[in-house]
Amino acid sequence: MSLFDLNDRVVVVTGCLGQLGRQFCETLLAHGARVAGLDRPGASDAETFLTGESPDILKAQADGRFLYVQGDVTAKPSLETAEAQIRERYGEAVFGLVNNAALDSPPDSDARETGPFESYPLENWERVFAVNTTGPFLCCQVFGSAMKEAGRGSIVNIGSIYGVLSPDQNLYQYRRDRGEVFYKPVAYAASKSALYNLTRYLAVYWGEDQVRVNAVTFAGVFNNQDAQFLEKYLQKVPLGRMADETDYNGTIVYLMSDGSSYMTGANVVIDGGFCAI
């Protein structure tokens, strides 16, 4: 048996319909896990995801190794319902949780959202924190409690370079030079920062229960970004490229496997060297 074989472990991936969430689901399945992909109720791309966009997901679904569950990470009753559905399907408590669901502000966001800090809307702050910080908190309460009862488990909180370092507003100066008012908003960075102490807190709190809690810090993933942004961004990356959507898969497998059995409370930085400069 391989050290990184996940041995039918039941793993929940939140935000499973996103660019990285899909990757995590497919990779965990490939290493032997049974996966419950959780995303928001009424997500418009769920049907495409579950009917052929990913052959691996489709096959795993037919084999009973993948379950798509609707759940709102900001609502504890919704998560409790999801946990019960997963337990009923697989006959046991979950082993792993990947807190992947998150909100960021895309480049074409509303001007109020990407304007100066002084006028950043409170409602945006609260909306981002609800998903990025309260969401992992509630998921850990619901799924982590089940792991504690079972006396084993692994939780991975997905962080960001902007939770470790302040966003470099100079990366967006080219937009301001052409007359736009654009700043990387505060809420994403602040909400991601909170995950690191949530990780450390729970690693200590659940240590005796053999529930491991770790964070990972990811850099930006290539997704056809603006050429001028890429030029600026890549000057800060020693490896000279943005991450490919597959670059983080191995770390997720490692943290769910026995290969990381003595690892908890850690933050694994995978950023092409961004934070080293």
Question: How would you sum up this structure, described in words?
Answer:
The protein is an alpha/beta fold. The chain has a single domain, classed as 3-Layer(aba) Sandwich (Rossmann fold). It has ten helices and seven strands. α1 (19-30) packs across α10. It is globular and about 60 Å long.
Keywords:
single chain, 277 residues, alpha/beta, 42% helix, seven-stranded parallel beta sheet, Rossmann fold
Could you write a compact summary of the structure shown?
The protein has helices at about 20-30, 45-55, 55-60, 75-90, 120-150, 160-165, 175, 185-205, 225-235, 250-255, and strands at about 10-15, 35-40, 65-70, 95-100, 155-160, 210-220, 265-270. The chain is α/β, with parallel strands linked by helices and about 280 residues long.
Detail the topology: elements first, then pairings.
Elements: E1 10-14, H1 19-30, E2 34-39, H2 46-53, H3 55-62, E3 66-70, H4 76-90, E4 96-99, H5 122-150, E5 153-160, H6 161-164, H7 173-177, H8 186-205, E6 211-218, H9 227-234, H10 249-256, E7 267-270
Helix pairs in contact: 1-10, 2-3, 4-5, 5-8
- How many individual β-strands? 7
Q: Which range best describes the helical content: under 10%, 10-25%, 25-40%, 40-55%, 55-70% or over 70%?
A: 40-55%
Name the average pLDDT.
94
How would you name the CATH homologous superfamily?
NAD(P)-binding Rossmann-like Domain
Please write the CATH class name: Alpha Beta
User: Order of strands in the sheet with the most strands?
Assistant: 3-2-1-4-5-6-7
Describe the global form: globular
* Class from secondary-structure proportions: alpha/beta
What is the C-alpha radius of gyration, as a whole number of Å? 19 Å
Spans where pLDDT lies below 50 across 5 or more residues: none
Sheet having the most strands: 7 strands, parallel
Distance between the termini: 40 Å
CATH fold-level name: Rossmann fold
Q: Which percent range describes the beta-strand content?
A: 5-15%
Q: How many individual helices?
A: 10
Number of domains: 1
CATH architecture descriptor text: 3-Layer(aba) Sandwich
SSE string: EHEHHEHEHEHHHEHHE
